[in-house]
Amino acid sequence: MKKLIAICFTLLLLVVGCTDTINTPSKKVEEFLGKYQKLDDDVLTQLDVVMDNDTEMNDKQKKDYRALMEKQYQNLSYKITDEKIDGDTATVDAEIEVFDYATSIKKSKEYYDGHRDEFKKSDDKNSDNVVEDAKDKAEDAKDKVEDAVEDVKDYVEYKLKELKNVTDKTTYTITFNLTKEDDEWKLQDISDTDRQKLHGLY
Question: Which residue ranges make up each domain of the chain?
Answer without folding.
Answer: 24-198
